[in-house]
Design a protein that fits this description.
Blueprint (H helix, E strand, L loop, with lengths): L1 H8 L4 H21 L1 E3 L6 E3 L5 H28 L4 E10 L4 H13 L3 E6 L4 E8 H7 L3 H10 L5 E4 L28
Antiparallel strand pairs: 1-2, 3-5, 3-6, 4-5
Amino acid sequence: MMVLWFVMSEKTEPKFLILGAVSSMLIASVCLRTLTMRGAKTDRTYYLLGVNIFRFIGYFAWLLVQIAKSAIYVARISLFDRSKVDPSIAWFRADYDDPAALSMLANSITLTPGTITIDITDDGIFSVHALTRELREGLLDGSMQAKVAWLYGETIEFTPVDEKEVKPEVQQKRPELVRKRYKVRRKGI
């Protein structure tokens, strides 16, 4: 913050340097509290932007490749072979402690064509909608979950969760559609 202050003001007088240092410390102390989060499983404090930049660049490049491959696959399925479309919901547990890792995984899944993150429970169970059986199996192999764990420097226990093991409150209840018939009243002319 102090370097930014100095570059933008270009003043070297002591009063400007003191004001710059004081305001930089004040802004940093206010912003630091807003950029920290408590762990999902522990009381450890995580910094929101606490990711190794080189790992992030590697993950981002890997994610772009996965998005491109999935986009081509979904386009091919949609245009030429609709018989492979078999929508289903996959459940798995990825117990990250860092809330930013949970968010990164959910957003990465949603960015990948053919999959959408529906929900994440407090105990780390993800429910994800997949367009085809192949996409569902790709989610359950754990490669994306391992990449996000690598990005945040965590070790996780990834396990696919069987539909029977998911608690009833986690499963989305399907709304019952009720057909109502309405009488149309027409005013006489």
